[in-house]
Amino acid sequence: MADEDEPAIPEAKLNPYLLGHEAAERAYLGAWEGGRLAHAWLICGLRGIGKATLAYRMARYALSQGGTTDMFGGPPSLAMSAEDPVFRRMASGGHADFRAIEKPWTDNKQTKRKAVIPVEEIREIGTFLSMTPAEGGWRAVVIDAADEMNTNAANAVLKVLEEPPHQALLFLVAHNPDRLLPTIRSRCRRLDLRPLSKEQVQALLNRYRPDLDSGAMKALSVLADGSIGRALELAEEGGVALFRDLINLLKDVPKLSATRLHALSDQALKGDVFRTLSGLLSWWLARMIAAGAKGDLAALGEIVPGEGELARRLLAAAPPAAWADVWERINTQARRTDAINLDRKRALMLMLWMVEQAAAGVPTAA
């Protein structure tokens, strides 16, 4: 396991390494070199694929005024050593021309962040960006994540975008850009980052969690669905073992083993295990539904032996459309459980019973 005092993957502001988003970096460098630099950049994609890390690289490059050209005459690069003065001052919050906006902490112990970015966190951006750069170059702001701003905060950002200050850059990270105001999206240059490949996820796991065996890395690279952040969370939460237990339980359908059902559901009472298990159940059903709709179950592969046969039996019991309804009900149950703190063991059992009933040809109650 990683040291509890040192996260397995550094925070974006501390991370000098990025893999898999070379096309986005080239787009930014091309705009810089061609004198077509947009004043605002919207960086979109799944959680945990490196969006904020890219935003910080782009901001560092600007604040170093493009000063990261390879010393041996290679092409310009956004890469910067963690020992570089610009990197270190941005990471510590000590660079006069840089601001980072995130959801504020709920308490002084910094154990949990608030649900949204309030307007108070955004209000000073316009004034800050309109000031003369302290070091004679650019000013830059990273908002992580912009789709987590409340309405007033979003309107405050829009005001800045409507009258962009000179020599100022705004980098908006968004997990779900559709939640942003259309007028915000239209005033930004958009970079859509693709999910990482299985090989890239494995390479990053090898970098950040070299203690994991090759089998766990291979399984996590599939379960992560292109997100190194998700892979690391699953590794921390014992996700591979939980997924194995989940699939082995589902193999008993259309009649679940009461012993196995209670044993797995008991685990939902521990820490974040409910969220992990409900997420894995939703993820696997979505993959099964997609493969069934395409008529290509071979594309599923197998993390756990017998997984393919389980998918075939479930799809023989009900068509993909029926399973899509089960999937939606399971996700609704998971959201309600988190939102109003329902009994997690009972909630997980209900979700698994939904699968059991569908596999037995019994319509799930509304």
Query: What percent of residues are in strands?
Result: 5-15%
Low-pLDDT residue intervals, each spanning 5 or more residues: 1-7
Radius of gyration: 23 Å
The helix fraction, in percent, is: 40-55%
Q: Give the CATH level 1 class of the largest domain.
A: Alpha Beta
Summing up helix and strand content along with how strands pair, one would put the structural category as: alpha/beta
Largest sheet properties: 5 strands, parallel
Helix and strand sequence: HEHHEHHEHEHEHHHHHHHHH
CATH superfamily of the largest domain: P-loop containing nucleotide triphosphate hydrolases
Named CATH topology of the largest domain: Rossmann fold
Please identify, by name, the CATH architecture of the largest domain. 3-Layer(aba) Sandwich
Which term fits the overall shape? elongated
What is the terminal-to-terminal distance? 42 Å
Q: If strands are numbered along the chain, what order do they take across the biggest sheet?
A: 2-3-4-1-5
What is the typical, i.e. mean, pLDDT?
91
Could you please describe the fold and organization of this structure?
This protein is elongated. α6 links the parallel β3 (139-144) and β4. Residues 1-7 have low confidence and may be disordered. α15 packs antiparallel against α16 (344-359). The protein folds into 2 domains: 12-192, Rossmann fold, CATH 3.40.50.300; 237-359. Helix content is 50%, strand content 7%. It is an alpha/beta fold and 366 residues long. The longest helix has 22 residues, at 273-294. It has a 5-stranded parallel β-sheet with strand order 2-3-4-1-5. It has helices at residues 22-33, 51-63, 85-92, 119-122, 125-130, 151-162, 182-186, 198-208, 214-223, 228-236, 239-250, 258-267, 273-294, 307-317, 320-340, 344-359; strands at 40-44, 98-102, 139-144, 168-174, 189-192. The two termini are 42 Å apart.
